[in-house]
DNA sequence: ATTGTAATTGCATGTTTTTGCATTTAATTG
DNA sequence: CAATTAAATGCAAAAACATGCAATTACAAT
């Protein structure tokens, strides 16, 4: 593994996990702790992470609370969310799962929207607390704390009795030929079911998620009806269009 | 837990609770009191908190989060919660429903607690996000926004397959002779079911809730195993004791 | 191909940080 | 004032760190 690769990987882990411990990284990346220390030192001096004794923290305000957790691409996500909201009409039935993009989307929904929202994400449900005319149906399950989402057989079973107009899918990794993927099987099977019970699928995809993949493939990219992205690379976007995905830019 | 994380956590607690006791923090964060003292000393010298004998105080007003409404009796509820936490042991299975007292309770649980929590309240589930050894099982249902809780037949059905050691019941209205009551039938039936599936029932009851009632009666007061209250009225409390309720004061 | 240079990595060494415990000192409470 | 509780101090063990060095690799120029 190349040094640059390794450091990118550290940044990616940090993006997901809020903190890293040097000795853990040493094991996960199979290099000595000295090398990890050097990496962390370097990334810190580049201003990309905050180095602390025994590990490193993600930059930005340390916040446990998921409802006010804002990540790096906050502004971009709000812009994408505004475009996504235009697809939502009164009386629609929406399935919405977890993710900061989806949270931004929900926060952009007009307060007078009349709709039904089915979600397995507690933060999404709570964010809809002030939308008086949105009925929120929460799917139960075992809470997966990394992404604050309910998963498991109960969740999938509950979806059996659901039919939705649109699924707002949180996407972490997407590659035009590989498809949409996540790092855990639990998330994968629930998302697959959500696709199944929905007429259309809409995802907000920041450009850093394009051309990436993880271990568990949910479905090919063409399950997306709409992909809203800030990427301007026409060659990439054309590939999605050729798979009947409507790309909004 | 990294030192920096711990100190961030202390600041966050202080943001919620106005004051902290060193010995409490030691238990909640699972480190020695010496370490807590060193942390407080450090945070104080950074001008982030005001160190006082036995603990520390918040400087200035809390960072307002408009999404969560502030609570009238917050300090009292924190005190009751601290007493309630003493009843919780490792490996217990807890059912916890909604309410600000219950939220305070969950926030007081030590970070190293090993337990299973079953809840129909999204805020409760989210508050347990930093307890690595607490498995959270979320009950689905239709979200009742006034109290941010999932209700309905799905919720009750899911409880059918549950058996718990203790139910931490949010109580809004209680009267010694009338019983425990709520203003909606949906809440009443779910709470009734939660009582049914639990060996013991514990409630934190601020004095303003005593001798009040609402339209839908859940159960007589004697379903409570433990009632933790700040009320000092001995005549009232004696009436509960005579119904085999253990009153903690 | 070969040589020289720089980058990268792991290891050995000594140093620093962090933490918990024991002891002493100080503050608080009744 | 006595008893309890909290704080300060010093100490020791473990973990993390910095440093220098050697081995390896990558790469460029010859």
UniProtKB/TrEMBL annotation, chains A, B:
<keyword id="KW-0804">Transcription</keyword>
<keyword id="KW-0238">DNA-binding</keyword>
<dbReference type="InterPro" id="IPR018356">
    <property type="entry name" value="Tscrpt_reg_HTH_DeoR_CS"/>
</dbReference>
<keyword id="KW-0678">Repressor</keyword>
<dbReference type="Pfam" id="PF00455">
    <property type="entry name" value="DeoRC"/>
</dbReference>
<protein>
    <recommendedName>
        <fullName>Lactose phosphotransferase system repressor</fullName>
    </recommendedName>
</protein>
<dbReference type="InterPro" id="IPR014036">
    <property type="entry name" value="DeoR-like_C"/>
</dbReference>
<dbReference type="GO" id="GO:0003700">
    <property type="term" value="F:DNA-binding transcription factor activity"/>
</dbReference>
<dbReference type="InterPro" id="IPR037171">
    <property type="entry name" value="NagB/RpiA_transferase-like"/>
</dbReference>
<dbReference type="InterPro" id="IPR036388">
    <property type="entry name" value="WH-like_DNA-bd_sf"/>
</dbReference>
<dbReference type="InterPro" id="IPR036390">
    <property type="entry name" value="WH_DNA-bd_sf"/>
</dbReference>
<dbReference type="GO" id="GO:0003677">
    <property type="term" value="F:DNA binding"/>
</dbReference>
<comment type="function">
    <text>Repressor of the lactose catabolism operon. Galactose-6-phosphate is the inducer.</text>
</comment>
<dbReference type="InterPro" id="IPR050313">
    <property type="entry name" value="Carb_Metab_HTH_regulators"/>
</dbReference>
<dbReference type="InterPro" id="IPR001034">
    <property type="entry name" value="DeoR_HTH"/>
</dbReference>
<dbReference type="Pfam" id="PF08220">
    <property type="entry name" value="HTH_DeoR"/>
</dbReference>
<feature type="domain" description="HTH deoR-type">
    <location>
        <begin position="3"/>
        <end position="58"/>
    </location>
</feature>
<keyword id="KW-0805">Transcription regulation</keyword>
